[in-house]
Design goal:
Length: about 775
Amino acid sequence: MVGNGVQPSTKTAISAATPAQRILEDIGDTDSCAREPIHRPGSIQPHGHLLVFGGADLRLLQASAHVGDLLGSALEKAFGQPADRLFPGEAGAELCRGLAQVPLREPVQLGVLQCRVGQFQTIAHRSGDVIILELEAVPTEGVRSLESLYPHLRASIQGLQAAATLDELMTRTAVEVRALTGFDRVLVYRFDEQWNGTVIAEDRNETLPAYLDLRFPASDIPEQARRLYTLNRLRLIVDASYQPVPILSPGGGGGGGGRAGGDGGEALDLSFSVLRSVSPVHLAYMRNMGTATSMSISVLSGDRLWGLISCHHAVPRPTPFSVRTACDLIGQVLSIQMTALDRSGEAEHRVALKRVETRLLAHMAASENFVAGLIGAPDDFLRLADAQGAAILFEGRCHRVGRTPSEDTVRRIAGHLGEHGHEEVFATHALSTLMPDAGDCIDTASGVLAISISQLHPSYVLWFRPELVRTVRWGGDPNKPSAVPGTPLSPRTSFETWKETVRWQAVPWRPSEIETVRDFRNAIVGIVLRKAEEMAALIVELQRSNSELTAFSYSVSHDLRAPFRHVTSYAELLRARASEKLDGRELHYLDTIIEAAASAGQLVDGLLQFSHLGRASLTHVAIDMNELVAEVRRLLTTEAGGRDIRWSVEALPEIQGDPTTIRLAFQNLLSNAIKYTRNRADAAIAVGCRTTPDAFEFFVRDNGSGFDMAYVHKLFGVFQRLHREEDFEGIGIGLANVRRIVERHGGRAWAEGEPGRGATFHISFPRSPGRPAIQPPSPIPTSVPPR
């Protein structure tokens, strides 16, 4: 331990048993560390005296054992006496006036009191309902008043305020405190997130060894000691070999039995005492370090203990209260300057990141969607979080930039975030501590910073940092236990440098980086929501327009059906009755009218069927696809015209859907396969299915005329044809019907082909009715193997 943090006690002979000792007599292992009442030790250090006053007339309730020597009378007779009787004269009256005005907690200096045994600096504070007065012997040499220290103190503060960097500030602090106190060594000690401490600055002579850059485990300054450092900013131990002086109550009760007010309550709270005794284990710890005197000044960042200014001297060295007060002021200035420098650095970094964020927002605004905007600006995308890699998980797709884990690992990390309900922004510099199975990606993702951009779907933007291997120098082995279970606690005896290689950790994310990506998340969510609202409005408009078009096409096709039939019927009737009166050209004209009217009628029938498919309700039942395909093949026997077609039909699954419309879809697909293979002597048609986690993907493959993939986007359109009517008959609506049927079932349709080598048509149906089949198309070859 670098400061004088309190450690659990072992059994040590002192003038009276303390509460901490009695706990250790009963327990004697590390459990006592958390139970030791270090703020209620029942004793003080011997370089001063302590008196406890209570009531309106300030009567003496408790006192340290040697106060009788100070007062010139037996301590038993002094108990119950008012303060003005114990300290008569003008000096005593002034002391009593000061005691009546003592504030809560913070110790205040009441001046120098001349007693029969010498001069004492008087220091007082309140503890609950009582006032604690402490008297420290005034050193015979050295500075006595804060006023005489002011010139040095002013220069010291100006030096701290001039520091341009955190390192310079810490070094100057160590130099100035050592100049004020004359200690052999002054350290600035910083805590990390796990409360391990690192010496980040040092000023010393050659008497004590250097501790700069050494790290000390959190157990050296246990939790209750850190709480006490937060409350009371300064602690002095004058001599590590001192014998504690017990605090007594009327009747001769010792420190453990001494009670505030003598009413049987708990031991006196000495949290703000300047003379409070410390654990014997800590005193042995100091002796093992080779330090007789220790003084620690707390450095706070807000309400949190940030670190300590720790001072050591090889021989006992009293330090006047005025000097300690000056050091406390330097500690407070350090806290203010440290916070200012840190905030200034973070503010500059945040401004730089905001410029990057602005550029990224401009990219996203100019792109089709935010994903394209980020992928299109990879340098700024990574620079936003000072990362080496990044990934976007959105709408089921994974986009990666820079050095990243594999796509499977990225999805696994995102899954972990979703399963454990992490907040909108997640940051860690040691992913393996949260995901033990993430050890395979430490070279790319030891550190992860992630933002969630959807509460409905697992959508994330993630940044990655690789492992940073570093060596930490400890002041002794941090893994060595302080005590063997079942044996008394003992202090650490070795402070030899012990090196540890730290693995599986990245550079921690800075607060400015976390805040910037938090703001960036809000921008992305706003873009996504705005796009979603625009899409929703567009879908509503499209649905309305589609409904109107469907109704119009149904009405038009229905209304045109009868006139075209009339035209065809009357034209045929005219040819039957007047064919003898018409010459060859006139008969040709009449045949053309009949053919055109019949063709138009077919178009109207196709349009009517297409409209009907969009309006008819679907009945979902279980369908045996083997039976359905066999039935369709029987229906198409006439179309095959007795040709020798080689059929290859795989075993097909059972699906849920509307049997009438699905039968129509397969009838169209198989009819097309028969039609477009009629010029092949070795015609071959294959039907099969590929099962994915989300869908059943059926395919119909032929070795017919095929098509050019450059026109595949027209293939499923209404009245779209990729072949001449003279080569292959048809009105170009069958595949449009197929797509409409499949999409109404929540599936999708696509095709692949090559001129002269055949085509493969795919249709997918979701495995759960009503659930979209989002699986990407499977690469099934378009050619049919030879016989």
